[in-house]
Write a structure and sequence with these properties.
This protein is of the alpha/beta class and 476 residues long. It has 16 helices and twelve strands. It has two domains: 149 residues, Rossmann fold, CATH 3.40.50; 245 residues, Rossmann fold. The chain has a seven-stranded mixed beta sheet, with helices on both faces. The protein has a five-stranded mixed beta sheet with strand order 1-2-4-3-5. The longest helix has 26 residues. The two termini are 37 Å apart. Bound molecules: glutamic acid. The site of glutamic acid (GLU) has 11 residues, from strand 3 and helix 12.
Length: 476
């Protein structure tokens, strides 16, 4: 979505980058080297469908190869274009650097309305697109590792992985050519929920610092906070679900493409999701008020606004009327450069996309490592961990009875303490640690430098310094 008088998405990302590098001291030429997109491959291919040849246009853009493989999702949408793919690839570079996943940035896209085709047709199209990218090493475990994005999911990733394996029959690391696969096809537990989970961990990290929350005029923790979520796709759904079910936040509005639901008492996220799955729309959902003009709810009063769908939804046309004191960019690029300026002037705090939605690529990193190591996380340690815990519990019980102390353990403690961590727990632990670490790095710059006023510039400074350090150590 681009509004008249605003720069394109890619220009918007570049302008944000420029605001940060203006405060940095990069060597001559390095700034330009980091900013520019290294290459964008465009492919047009035909697939015979419904008795005729349909031509599709797809892209794979590589923004930075300071580390390889490069990483980033593949998007299926009619709105996909080169400018968008390049903007998203650049964001991947900065995102990966910020959360310390050892990747360069990339992104792909296919101009297609995935709802217009049935599953068999989508498989044919996906395999053909994958074939075009694989034969140019634009899908490769060591060079370029795609993942899901808008309009794609586990199913498409499984097709891509299989296509790669068919074309590289002796590559023992074939499964690592793509992440976001279903668990039974080399995926990892917790990848589907990862981006939404990351949004939750990002918010927890923010509220762990009362002085940071105070900058948005907020206090306390997430309990009782009124949250508006725009987009109930994979990211918005999981974020809203976890925040409401685990942190006590109230989801007061859910905005979808065909309208919005509103309930100040808090919506039941799971029930809304089930309604959408069954009816294909939020229309008719009985337990909340419905507005056709969903966009208006972006401007409704709340504590936290979570745009979780498309880029550019908060732009020059509505930024002035946004009332949320805190925006969490669960989508990539939901706030345009111009809107960002307006919101900052109003004192709104923005937790930027490259941090807020980095949970996806973080767990993708775990999946890639799992594929390369050919073993599930926790498989070697789990029972050993349990055995050591059992030693301690047995010893405590022996002491208690030998000494007649009469100690009893709290209900459930023993079971919980004795259970060794499985893959899902390890993934969540790794993700939480990553989100806390990245928040700390960002906040040190935010608080530590007089000339840095906002989290976005802080995030860019952390990322760009890391990318620059890699280039410098390569002698570039
Ligand atoms: N498409 C997601 C993103 O924008 C995930 C990328 C990945 O896992 O490589 O971050």
């Amino acid at each position: 979505m681009s509004v008249a008088g605003e720069p394109s998405f890619r220009e918007s990302v570049d302008l944000m980058f420029n605001r940060a590098v203006a405060l940095m001291d990069l060597g001559p030429g390095l700034e330009q080297k980091i900013r520019v997109c290294n290459s964008t491959y465009t492919v047009r291919f035909g697939v015979r469908l419904r008795g005729k040849i349909e031509t599709f246009t797809g892209y794979r853009s590589v923004h930075s190869e300071h580390m390889e493989p490069v990483k980033g999702g593949i998007r299926y949408a009619l709105s996909v274009n080169q400018d968008e793919v390049e903007a998203l690839a650049a964001l991947m570079t900065y995102k990966c650097a910020l959360v310390e996943t050892p990747f360069g940035g990339s992104k792909g896209g296919l101009c297609i309305d995935p709802r217009a085709w049935d599953v068999d047709e989508l498989e044919q199209i996906t395999r053909r697109f994958a074939y075009e990218l694989i034969k140019r090493d634009l899908i490769n475990p060591a060079q370029n590792v795609p993942a899901p994005d808008m309009g794609t999911g586990e199913r498409e990733m499984a097709w891509i992985a299989d296509q790669y394996a068919r074309m590289n029959t002796t590559d023992i690391n074939a499964k690592a050519c793509v992440t976001g696969k279903p668990p039974h096809a080399g995926g990892i537990q917790g990848r589907v929920e990862a981006t939404g989970r990351g949004v939750q961990y990002a918010l927890r990290a923010f509220f762990r610092h009362p002085e940071d929350a105070a900058r948005a005029g907020l206090s306390g923790d997430l309990d009782g906070k009124r949250v508006i979520v725009q987009g109930l796709g994979n990211v918005g759904y999981h974020a809203a679900k976890f925040l409401s079910e685990e942190d006590g936040a109230k989801i007061t509005a859910i905005i979808e493409r065909d309208g919005a639901l509103h309930d100040e008492a808090g919506l039941d996220v799971e029930a809304v999701r089930q309604w959408i799955v069954r009816h294909g729309s939020i229309k008719g959902y009985p337990a909340a008020s419905f507005t056709e003009n969903g966009g208006a709810l972006l401007e409704a009063p709340c504590d936290i606004l979570i745009p979780a769908a498309m880029e550019g939804v908060i732009n020059l046309s509505n930024a002035g009327r946004i009332r949320a004191p805190l925006i969490v960019e669960a989508a990539n690029g939901p706030v345009t450069f111009g809107a960002d300026e307006i919101l900052r002037r109003k004192g709104c705090i923005i937790i930027p996309d490259m941090y807020a939605n980095a949970g996806g690529v973080t767990v993708s990193y775990f999946e890639w490592v799992k594929n390369l190591s050919h073993i599930r996380f926790g498989r070697m340690q789990r029972r050993a961990e349990e055995a050591r815990h059992l030693l301690l519990v047995n010893e405590l019980e022996r002491l208690s009875s030998d000494q007649g102390l009469g100690w009893t353990m709290s209900p459930g403690f023993k079971e919980q303490y004795l259970r060794g961590a499985g893959e899902l727990e390890l993934v969540r632990s790794g993700l939480d640690d990553t989100m806390r670490g990245a928040y700390q790095a960002m906040r040190e710059v935010w608080h530590g430098r007089q000339d840095v006023q906002d989290l976005r510039v802080a995030a860019y400074i952390v990322s760009i310094s890391r990318v620059a350090a890699t280039y410098q150590s390569k002698g570039l």
